[in-house]
Amino acid sequence: MTKLYVGNLPFSATEDAVKTLFAAHGTVEKVSLINDRDTGRPRGFGFVEMNNADASRAMQALNGKEMDGRSLKINEAQDKPRSAGGGSRY
Question: Which of 35, 63, 69, 72 has the lowest CB atom count within 10 Å?
């Protein structure tokens, strides 16, 4: 399974619209659009999970493609290291 980062999404994008866009290139397992923690508004990016071959095809086909006037930026998501959380910085 490959997780793709999808950036520069229009703020009007829905999970269904993103799933439909990617489904033309293979089976979409999961779509997660990220909202601002404080305001609840879309942040303009999200993640799509697909099997490896489908993800590769979708990335090549959709990177730079326009969605509602915005040029999508798609690449393989990098796992963000988890911080220990809390505590001092010293």
Answer: 69
- Domain locations along the chain: 2-76
For 20, list phi and psi in degrees, rounded to 5. Answer: -60, -45
Q: Is 86 left (phi over 0), alpha (psi -120 to 50) or beta?
A: left
Q: What is the DSSP letter of 5?
A: E
Q: How far apart are CA 61 and CA 21, in angstroms?
A: 10
Q: For residues 48 and 31, is the Cβ–Cβ distance under 8 A?
A: yes
Amino acid letter for position 80: K
Chunk the chain into consecutive blocks of 10 residues (it has 90) and report each block's average pLDDT, rounded to whole numbers: 97 97 98 96 97 97 96 92 59
Token pair for 59 = 């990335």
